[in-house]
Amino acid sequence: MIGDDGTQYGEVSSSKANQLSAEKGLDLVLVAPNAKPPVCKMMDYSKYRYEQQKKAKEARKHQKTVEVKEIRMTAVIEEHDIQTKLNHAEKFLTKGNKVKASVRLPYRAGESLIEQGKEVLNHFKDELSEVGEMDGRIVKNGRFLFMMINPKN
């Protein structure tokens, strides 16, 4: 048994431990139940729980959330428009967010338009190679081609 101030009581019977903790007005908490013999500690359990919740809240506050920002384009995009999209994507990546670059295809897109969309995405990836790296490969899902770009560390 361990006291509230760190005092080592040694091996004490459970009834004696309960009596000692009741005299001091503290709770008896089982710290290591699987140890031989089990280890108990006298403490104010409500204060201990409050401290643990406070630590968890502080840890969540300092946790960084990564958002996924989407940049949508078409397979027939002009150079100036793609430069504007690149500037936005670069800003997102430098802030530490992921970027989902997608190309929207018409309903009955032929193979040539799909290839053109892949070229647009590859150009996009090459231009962002300094601040981001592609995660996986270009995927076709319905009428969209998309890829994920992670920020470089």
Topology:
Blueprint: H1 14-24, E1 27-32, E2 39-43, H2 45-61, E3 68-74, H3 79-94, E4 98-104, H4 111-127, E5 132-141, E6 144-151
Parallel strand pairs: 3-4
Antiparallel strand pairs: 1-2, 4-6, 5-6
Describe this structure in words.
The protein has four helices and six strands. It folds into two domains: 14-61, Roll (Ubiquitin-like (UB roll)), CATH 3.10.20.80; 68-151, 2-Layer Sandwich (Translation Initiation Factor IF3), CATH 3.30.110. It has 153 residues and is α+β, with helices and mostly antiparallel strands. The model has no long low-confidence stretch (mean pLDDT 89). Strand 3 (68-74), helix 3 (79-94) and strand 4 form a beta-alpha-beta unit. It starts with 13 loop residues before the first helix and ends with a strand.
